[in-house]
Design a protein that fits this description.
Length: about 450
């Protein structure tokens, strides 16, 4: 019975499964080996947690130029016109002053090919008017000087007549006083003679003689009074003549001054016209030099913005894009706002340029391959439209030992990835910081120099 039970199919199947399970079980030596491997991995992991890790601030951007004059620029024509001839093509290298495009005039004010000659003729005419105005001014000045000199002579003569008349008045006044005194004496004598005649002391002849003398003295008084009045009248006439001379001089002087003012105004107007014509002549000369648009600096024509011949272009319209020949290349990268306080204007940066193979180790930049050294040159004071802050990174000069210079083939606008280098921390701290979303930290607030 026992042999029959052991030979049943169920029993054989169970025995087979038991043997397979025994094969899957680890032997004691294998289990011991696995434990040692796990222990070694744990120790290695703990050691790695205490390895130094270089903190970095990542940023992405594009290649640009450090100086504004090195960045791609549009070239504009300063005057409106019609395209006559293109001298350049896309991608062509040009030097400063090379002709880019030739345009012709479209403004009717400048159609006349002999316009400069016409303006010069007008200028010559205005110069003649200016000479005539100067001659009139000189003549008027001479007239004023003659009036002043003639006035001095006339005034001297008139003043002398006034003085002479005043002397005559004084003399006649004194003579009148003397004549009146004689008349009063004669009158007193006649009164005494009249009294003596009544008393019989004087004869009638004596009386008549004294009466005749009194009449003669009275006649002298009347005559002297008339003479004095005539002297006063002469004095008044002399003063009137003096005032007339002054009035006539003032009238003549006012007329001369008016002529002088008119000449000055004419000269000023002519000088204004001359300045305007000179300005117009200069503008025409400069405008004709602007029919040829030239390259402002050495570089390459990136793209022409206008097409065809005979097309009209407006004043200040862009005709092409010019890339300067040897720009001072820089990397324009953007970083988060919370990282900006940790960055100095001399912080070191490791850059990866698109198109150059590289292997970047975030925590160990020293072992990175295909990256390039840079230094922060500019940190924007305000954030950009995307809420991040822009950094301009320039090439570290001189190039650090065991490092390569930036590729000469870099073109502006290509992508770049950068990491701003900060201080070293343990790996466990960096993992803890990343898990908690904390920004990189410093031992102390940065003051100067590169953040270590």
């Amino acid at each position: 019975m026992g042999n029959m039970h052991n030979n049943t199919p169920g029993y054989l199947n169970l025995l087979s499964q038991s043997l397979e399970s025994n094969k899957e079980l680890l032997q004691p030596k294998a289990a011991y080996r696995l434990g040692r491997i796990m222990t070694a991995l744990l120790v290695l992991f703990i050691i790695i947690l205490f390895l130094p890790w270089r903190q970095t601030i990542p940023g992405r951007g594009t290649v640009t130029a450090l100086r504004p004059e090195d960045r791609p620029q549009t070239v504009q024509n300063q005057i409106g016109g019609r395209i006559e001839r293109w001298v350049i093509r896309d991608g062509q290298e040009v030097k400063k002053g090379d002709t880019l495009i030739v345009i012709s005039e479209t403004s009717q004010s400048y159609f006349d090919p002999a316009l400069p000659e016409r303006l010069n003729e007008q200028l010559d005419a205005k110069m003649d008017n200016s000479t005539a105005a100067e001659q009139k001014m000189e003549a008027t000045y001479a007239q004023i000087r003659a009036l002043k000199n003639g006035l001095q002579f006339q005034l001297s003569s008139a003043e002398n007549k006034v003085t002479q008349s005043e002397n005559y008045v004084q003399i006649d006044s004194a003579d009148l006083v003397a004549v009146e005194n004689f008349y009063n004496i004669s009158k007193a004598r006649l009164d005494r003679y009249e009294a003596g005649y009544k008393n019989g002391l004087f004869s009638l002849t004596d009386i008549e003689s004294r009466r005749l003398k009194l009449q003669e003295d009275f006649a002298k008084v009347i005559s002297q009074r008339n003479k004095l009045n005539n002297s006063k009248q002469s004095l008044l006439n002399a003063k009137i003549d003096l005032d007339n001379i002054k009035a006539k001089y003032q009238e003549a002087l006012a007329k001369a001054q008016s002529d002088l003012s008119s000449a000055l105004s004419s000269k000023a107007s002519v000088m204004g016209d001359i300045s305007k014509l000179k300005n117009e002549i200069t503008n025409v000369s400069i405008r004709r030099g602007l029919y040829v648009v030239r390259a402002p600096q050495d570089g390459f024509v990136v793209k022409t913005l206008k097409a065809g011949v005979g097309e009209n272009i407006k004043e200040g319209e862009s005709i092409c894009i010019l890339q300067p020949r040897e720009p001072m290349v820089a990397a324009e990268i953007y970083v988060d706002a919370m990282d900006v306080p940790l960055i100095l204007d001399s912080s070191n940066v490791r850059l990866q340029f698109e198109g150059w193979p590289s292997v970047q180790f975030s925590g160990w930049p020293a072992v990175a391959v295909g990256t390039f050294a840079g230094k922060v040159a500019v940190i924007d004071r305000v954030s950009s439209s995307n809420g991040k802050y822009r950094l301009l990174v320039k090439q570290d000069i001189p190039v650090p030992v065991n490092d390569d210079a930036w590729p000469q083939q870099l073109r502006q606008g290509s992508g770049v990835y950068g990491r701003v280098i900060l201080r070293s921390v343990p790996v466990w701290y960096e993992i803890w910081r990343q898990l908690n979303g904390f920004p990189p930290s410093l031992e102390k607030e940065p003051s100067s120099g590169t953040v270590k």
